[in-house]
Amino acid sequence: MMADLNALSLYHKEHCPFCHKVRAVMAELKLDIPLVDMNANAQEWQRLQTEGGKGMVPCLRIDQGGETFWMYESDDIIEYLRDNFA
Predict the structure, then answer these.
(1) CA separation (Å) from 70 to 31, 60, 64, 76?
(2) Is 0.85 surpassed by the pTM of this model?
């Protein structure tokens, strides 16, 4: 199943170097994935920890087939984006 760009959101922090790395690849691939700023949104920060299981960024939230998947680790996220949208 091909990934749906509309089913993605990136949980990030503006000054996180790993988040910057992912955002740079998003820009390179011209991907308009919604960004969820963890410094500005306490409710989503709680959701990331509760549903995702970790309080770390970057995290790519993938809503697919009625399920939500939380992908951590910048290199894994970059590989996913390149594999699905390059």
Answers:
(1) 18, 6, 11, 11
(2) yes
